[in-house]
DNA sequence: CTAATAGTGTCTGTGAGACAATATAGC
DNA sequence: GCTATATTGTCTCACAGACACTATTAG
């Protein structure tokens, strides 16, 4: 149950006087992913002030909980933070096609040196968006290639990586990447990284960027078309052939499936299962 | 980033004076599942006081955030609440074999009529445990058959259901059940519902209770044994045959796999995919 | 004895992946 | 022309599911 029933006087007070609670703040952080130049990128901001000044961090901020400002729901807070950082308009605008889902909540004591912070992380899949503007006091904001962050399987950054991540954001980002890799297996969300119309080779490039391995073009093509509802044909053909030649690929739109069946499983995962 | 950098004076104050924040509290709620008499059960408590007095709720309570009490991590809070409700000892005791994972965070404004509450929900898979004791001010506590709660696909309860769930706990429970159904497909966590040693028919009963459909005994048996690391033989044989006759099944332990490969997919899901 | 169950064998359809072939575009 | 690419075809192996069969136990 959400607040437990009163147990003694202090609990009674706590139920009705918020100030009697342990002090805690709630933030949202967003792992926003996109594909640029065939590589997976994440939106990061460089911190201007302490703590972790000069380090990079996921875009995020406090949830408007209802005191001085109108109470907002958690996904709304995530969209708001993303819109503020990217300079794009929210749900009704350019961010309308962005897929957003809750990733997880991070609340270990000490994860923020100032006070107890509970951070609800969201995961976003976006088509290619313009460069963000370093707004407010963020020293910088940019789409950063995920490969340049030196993430290890354990959620840390390799020593020597130039762009260091603040707080536990390396862990959050690692969790987001693993979630994204899995999501591509059994949902059609790879299309959220593409424009409204896309070719099968473009879709394959999304899979290759997120999974970090090349896929067999022929088998991928047949597989995508064989899964009901994954993509639907527009009937049109791209106006250009492949990058280094080849016939003009056909154009497709996202289909109406919410799950891929059968799934599109990552190759060669037998080893990493124990 | 977790607290965003200071942007103006109020933000500056907010960064260092917790009392300047919007008042918000963080709780954990636990969807604890087990199998009893071949049916899936969830641990619920009946509320003694307002709001929602007399209704049933998931066990849960406030996270000790570090004010008056020592700061605790979110999973520790979930284990503590589970231990308090079940009367069993925590990580080192009877709850040691319980699987616990984060389910999601629920923070819509108004979900608790008293104040803004952010609730981090956890999902637990437990072997059969004793009946809980209605401790503290909970009017009652019990393992309740999930089927008796009249949950609909949309996360509500059917009208006429006698046991009503408080807050948004019907939604949280529905999400937990759907997560559990999926987890059994691609992880060996069905073994978390069994004792240390179990038979393949017992394991099949877990799948049937969670998925709500009968499975083909022969194919299930061969499938479980063919997935590397799912189960390992103890060499022993159960001392009794099947409920209504039959040979004595062999005993197995949980294996070392963390993922099932190939997965054990639910039959007949082609329809519910759009 | 009878019925139900554990465990194994066999067959078939589907699908993943390797490999190949053909046509088309960039250079 | 040369090469890379899009798309389709073919083959093989793994596996899910249907069905069948035997041995064993409860009642």
From TrEMBL, chains A, B:
CDD domains the UniProt entry points to: NUDIX_NadM_like
Domain Nudix hydrolase: 25-165
PROSITE patterns given in the database record: NUDIX, NUDIX_BOX
Keywords attached to this entry: Hydrolase
GO MF terms, alphabetically ordered: hydrolase activity
Region (Disordered) residue spans: 232-251
Any Pfam family matching the protein: NUDIX
Name of the protein in question: NUDIX hydrolase
Protein species of origin: Actinomadura nitritigenes
Upper classification of the organism: Bacteria, Bacillati, Actinomycetota, Actinomycetes, Streptosporangiales
């Amino acid at each position: 149950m959400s607040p437990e029933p009163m147990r003694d006087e202090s609990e009674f007070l706590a139920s009705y006087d918020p100030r009697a609670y342990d002090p805690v703040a709630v933030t949202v952080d967003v792992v926003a992913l996109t594909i640029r130049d065939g590589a997976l990128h994440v939106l990061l901001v460089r911190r201007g002030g302490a703590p972790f000044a000069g380090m990079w961090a996921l875009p995020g901020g406090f949830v408007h909980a209802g005191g001085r400002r109108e109470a907002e729901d958690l996904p709304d807070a995530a969209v708001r933070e993303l819109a503020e950082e990217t300079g794009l308009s929210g749900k009704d605008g350019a961010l309308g096609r962005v897929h957003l889902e809750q990733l997880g909540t991070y609340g270990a004591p000490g994860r923020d040196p100032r006070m107890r912070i509970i951070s609800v992380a969201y995961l976003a899949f976006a088509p290619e968006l313009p460069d963000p503007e370093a707004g407010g006091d963020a020293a910088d904001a940019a789409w950063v290639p995920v490969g340049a962050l030196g993430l290890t399987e354990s959620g840390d950054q390799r020593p020597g990586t130039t762009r260091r991540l603040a707080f536990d954001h390396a862990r959050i980002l690692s969790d987001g990447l693993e979630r994204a890799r899995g999501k591509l297996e059994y949902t059609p969300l790879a299309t959220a990284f593409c424009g409204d119309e896309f070719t099968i080779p473009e879709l394959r490039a999304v899979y290759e960027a997120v999974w970090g391995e090349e896929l067999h073009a022929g088998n991928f093509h047949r597989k995508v078309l064989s899964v009901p509802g994954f993509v639907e044909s527009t009937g049109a053909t791209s106006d250009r052939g492949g990058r280094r030649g080849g016939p003009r690929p056909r154009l497709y739109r996202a289909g109406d499936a919410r799950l891929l069946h059968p799934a599109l499983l990552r190759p060669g995962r037998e080893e990493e299962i124990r």
